[in-house]
Every structure is written in C-alpha cells, then in structure tokens.
Amino acid sequence: MKVLLILAFLSIPAASVVAAPHSAHVHGVAEIDVVVDGNKVLITLESPADNLLGFERAPKNDYEKNKVQDVAAQLQVVGNVFAPNAQCQSAKPVVVMPTFGKGEHSDITAEYMFECSNQATQIKLPLWKNFAGFKSLMVNLVTPQGQKQLKLKPGQALDLK
C-alpha cells in the first residue's frame, strides 16, 4: 500500500504539468503536498518567502533579520500551520529558510509528519490566520481512495475524504 501511495504521489506533478501551467512561485499562492497512509499524514509546504516574510531578498535591517527568525520559529510550531482532526503526534518539523541568492526568487519549505490514533478526515489550516500573506493554497492530495488536486481559499480546511 505504501509503495502505491508514493507512486501515486509522484505522478501528481507530471499530471499537473499537463493539466495546467506549474503554479510555482506566485506571490500569495503556496503549494502543499499531502499524503495520507493509514494513520500517518505527511505534509510538505512550499511557499514563496514573500507570503511569510513580506519580502524575498536578503534582510536589510534588524527588523527583517528578526522577522526571518520569527517566521522560522513559528513554522516549527505545528499548531501554527496544520491541525489534523484526529489525535495526532507530530514529529519535529523540518523547516528550510531561504538563502536569499542575488536576483533569485526565494522559497520557504517545511515538512510535517503526523502519526494519529485514528485516520484523520480533515486538516484545519491555522496558517490562514497566522500568515496573512497566503491568498490560496494549491493542494496535491494522495489518500488510499486516490489522488486529487484542490485549490483552497482563506479560511477553508482540507477535507481528506
């Protein structure tokens, strides 16, 4: 089953390229990949740094340097970003902040792993209220029932059914 889910997950980006232009790095839009395998949930968030920081270049002053550290710390707190509706334990998130290359767009990525006491059917998204820069989320969802791509707007939760 796990191999099938992983293969299904890997096929989503290829299908997305055919169906629509890649939505990478559009300010206000972030992408999350969600894989549900039994009682486990893996979520990967990829977002333009501008959505979380308000800029995507090297910080220019102490305020911006502190903002980078504050956002990294906020993303380390799982409850600030995702909240499955099942009783879940989360592993320590893996957050990768940008290196701010000259003239490049900068992205922030984070990975969240949950192990739940039962299968989650919904994931609430506290990120809407904690990070005002998100205007929509493109979701690539893989569950034992299949795969689909969704677009969520502020305030919406992710239905895993």
The low-confidence parts are 7-22
- Overall shape: globular
Work out the helicity level.
Answer: 25-40%
β-strand percent reads: 25-35%
- Write down the secondary-structure element order: HEEHHEEEEEHEEE
Polypeptide structure, described:
It is a single chain. The chain is an alpha+beta fold and 161 residues long. Helices cover 26% and strands 35% of the residues. The strands form 2 sheets. Strands 1, 2, 4, 5, 6, 8 and 9 form a 7-stranded mixed sheet that branches. It has a 3-stranded antiparallel sheet with strand order 3-7-10, with no helix packed on it. The longest helix has 18 residues, at 2-19. The protein starts with a helix and ends with a strand. 24% of the residues are buried. This is DUF2796 domain-containing protein. It holds the Pfam family ZrgA.
